[in-house]
Write a structure and sequence with these properties.
This protein is of the alpha/beta class. It contains ten helices and twelve strands.
């Protein structure tokens, strides 16, 4: 788990810390790179009596057709491996998936750290993480970046004074929670009107970047691995996905701010599900990058070294930030 003081201090500075900061994990956490990790054998499980169908939530932030297409191979592989019908629940925004957990309409979803924290708080601890993705260097963190058009004349955060800013989604870690926290730590109250002329929600990560490209906003925040070639949108993340879909040429954007490392969001399941189900889902994901690398890269919008097991305490800082954010909203 990231040290809280170091994390907060790094965010306040707005600088990308050493890639290894979030690499330390407990030694008993299984990883894709472990030699004995293998895909579970195919066949219906006893837990299917309690989970007759597997419903997987998909966060918003990308158009529905692309999301369903990107996850279709994943859905089919789950169905073939465990012998239960598998359905994709494509929510229009992050809140839809969080609400689906609360209503027990889904069993599993891949979440951002803030989305996980929000769902955990909303359900009173009713969900738990099973795995998190690893980046290319084996770390389990990514970054929030602020982007502007390359022809905007804006070269740094100071240059955004009097300009407009698009958040991605109110339940996004990199697209709202962390950049808002970091800006406030630097003395910028985003909503006060004293720095930005206006702020608003773009409707998701992809949509927020499109809004900048179409000059609807001057700047936007989104997520990236922060590793690899910036000209290609890095190794993984929203920018890389948009480049791969030919929606974006990185020459048209300029990155003017990066956060310190943010814990990668987990794939999470409901805590009331059978322990055997949870174990099968862990093994399935740990083995996926080696067994089906193309499906893995589609799901993760790029690649890294795979997955590793995760625990709730890895996200306690984000839970605390979400709780503080909720308290501030109630006071306003």
């Amino acid at each position: 788990m990231l040290n809280r003081r170091l994390f907060a201090a790094g965010l306040a500075a707005g600088a990308l810390a050493a890639p290894g900061l979030a690499r330390a994990q407990k030694s008993d956490m299984r990883r894709t790179l472990d030699p004995n990790v293998a895909m579970p054998s195919a066949g219906k499980r006893p837990w299917a009596q309690q989970v007759p169908q597997l419903r997987v939530g998909l966060l918003g932030g990308e158009n529905e057709a692309d999301r369903l297409g990107r996850f279709d191979g994943y859905r089919k592989l789950l169905e073939e491996t465990f012998g239960v019908p598998t359905r994709l629940f494509a929510a229009s925004d992050y809140a839809g998936v969080l609400q689906a957990y609360s209503a027990k309409q889904i069993e599993m979803a891949s979440l951002g750290a803030s989305g996980y924290a929000g769902a955990w708080l909303d359900t009173g601890g009713g969900i738990e993480p099973i795995v998190v993705p690893e980046e290319a260097d084996g770390s389990v963190s990514y970054v929030s970046v602020m982007v502007v058009r390359a022809d905007s004349g804006i070269t740094d955060l100071a240059g955004t004074r009097g300009k407009s800013l698009a958040w991605a989604d109110p339940n996004s870690t990199s697209g709202y929670l962390i950049p808002r926290f970091a800006l406030r730590q630097q003395g910028i109250n985003p909503e006060s009107g004293q720095h930005f002329s206006r702020t608003g929600f773009g409707g998701g990560h992809e949509q927020a970047v499109v809004a900048v490209l179409q000059r609807q906003y001057d700047a936007a925040v989104t997520w990236a691995s922060g590793q690899g070639d910036e000209a290609q949108g890095y190794t993984r993340g929203n920018l890389r996905a948009m480049v791969d879909k030919k929606m974006l040429d990185m020459k048209d954007l300029r990155i003017i701010w990066r956060s310190s490392p943010i814990p990668n969001g987990p794939t999470a399941v409901r805590t009331d599900l059978p322990a055997e189900f949870k174990e099968d889902m862990k093994l399935f994901h740990l083995a996926l990058p080696k067994a089906q690398p193309k499906i893995y890269e589609q799901v993760e919008r790029g690649g890294g070294t795979g997955y590793r097991e995760s625990r709730h305490e890895d996200f306690q800082l984000i839970v605390d930030l979400r709780r503080t954010e909720a308290q501030e909203r109630r006071r306003r």
